[in-house]
Write a structure and sequence with these properties.
Phosphorylase Kinase, domain 1, alpha+beta, globular, 11 helices, Aminoglycoside 3'-phosphotransferase, Chain: A, domain 2, 15% strand, single chain, 2 domains, 6-stranded antiparallel sheet
């Protein structure tokens, strides 16, 4: 979804006025400037999409200057959101905002966090950030001539950006960042499959394969991020967790910002490279990296920052994991629909794609890295 998608939901006048006043107060919180007294909020609207998170676009206007902004918060009534609420991942929105700030300080292109919301703001759990120029809708990015030049360099830029993410010191990260390294990742996956009665033997087959081959690729990029020269690569870095076409804001010149950090965690850095080259995130394009680029460019961009890149065997391993993860999302949506917990068309449409994920898994288990040129 574009950060500035036009199709949104408008509020009635009284709701708009009340929310605008709260946004102004939140933005003025902690500021010594008196500018807020003459400022106003215009164009407030909820953007389409996002069942797990509300996204609102608006402008802060002051003396003719316009600041485009985004409000990202948990859905539902603000009063219902508590400090312990979480987004779709394990990260609180406050920690997500803190992580974005850290990433920006380490050269990762991200929006600027303007304000983390607190209880007195009466807006729920979330934060306000800059609304950057660009497009994130995959089908527009892959088909529109406007982004032709951007597509040519986007895989390389993604490689560079992922390397910068993976080089952020662990000590600089929010303390509440979940750790999914080692066996934890597979234990979580097995628990989810067990909870739904292991209705997909293919997903279980994929998980078994990942466990069996866990150590086969541990020493492939010996000079990569977080490398310990005495003990080999310590494969624990920041992982974005959802780095893909659709969460990348792009303009005519290429990558503008990395969005949606709610699935960030500590883990194996190659997970991100396998994820962006998963079949599900190519949206029908034959190009393996996000539907817009080639492996060689992704890896060249990665190596340009950290001096080395992972092997294709390691990327293949994490493509298997990406296919398994997408299959489990489809399974979750299917069970939500069948149980009546959420009988929406969206849940059913995603749930029916379980078979696609199973096919992807079987093809990956039978072959080489998906989409690699011979």
């Amino acid at each position: 979804m574009s950060q500035d998608e036009a199709a949104g939901t408008a509020l009635d006048q009284s709701e708009t006025r009340a929310m605008a006043e709260r946004l102004l107060a939140a933005l003025a919180d902690g500021s010594r400037s008196s500018d807020s007294e003459a400022a106003r909020i215009v164009g407030l609207r909820r953007l389409s999409g996002g069942a797990n998170m509300e996204t609102w676009a608006f402008d802060r206007e002051h003396e003719g200057a316009i600041e485009p902004l985004i409000l990202r918060r948990l859905p539902g009534a603000p009063a219902a959101n508590s400090a312990t609420d979480r987004a779709v991942g394990e990260l609180s929105l406050a920690d997500e905002a803190a992580l974005i700030v850290v990433a920006g300080r380490h050269g990762v292109p991200v929006p600027t966090v303007r304000q983390v919301l607190h209880g007195e703001h009466a807006l729920g759990q979330g934060y306000i950030m800059s609304r950057e120029r660009g497009e994130a809708l995959p089908f527009r990015l892959l088909a529109d001539d406007r982004y032709r030049d951007a597509r040519e360099q986007l895989a390389y830029q993604c490689g560079q950006t992922l390397a910068r993410i993976h080089q952020i010191p662990l000590a600089a990260l929010p303390q509440n960042l979940p750790d999914h390294s080692g066996a934890v990742l597979f234990q979580r996956a097995q628990a989810l499959l067990d909870s739904y009665g292991n209705v997909s033997p293919v997903l279980q087959l994929g998980l078994n394969w990942l466990r069996e081959h866990q150590h086969d690729h541990q020493h492939d990029h010996q000079h990569g991020p977080q490398h310990d020269p005495e003990h080999g690569p310590a494969r624990r870095t920041l992982v974005h967790g959802d780095f893909r076409n659709g969460n990348l804001l792009v303009d005519e010149h290429g990558l503008v910002a990395v969005l949606d950090w709610e699935l960030a965690h500590i883990g194996d850095p190659v997970q991100d490279l396998g994820y962006i080259s998963a079949n599900v995130w190519r949206f029908g394009s034959p190009k393996p990296v996000g539907g817009f680029g080639e492996y060689a460019d992704l890896l060249a961009g990665y190596a340009s920052v950290c001096g080395a890149a992972p092997s294709m065997e390691s990327i293949h391993y994490w493509q298997v994991h990406a296919a398994l993860s997408w299959g489990m999302v489809c399974l979750l949506m299917l069970q939500m629909y069948r149980s009546g917990q959420d009988a929406s068309l969206e849940r059913a449409a995603i749930g029916r794609r379980l078979s696609e994920a199973e096919i992807d898994l079987l093809l990956l288990l039978d072959g080489e890295p998906d989409g690699e040129s011979s």
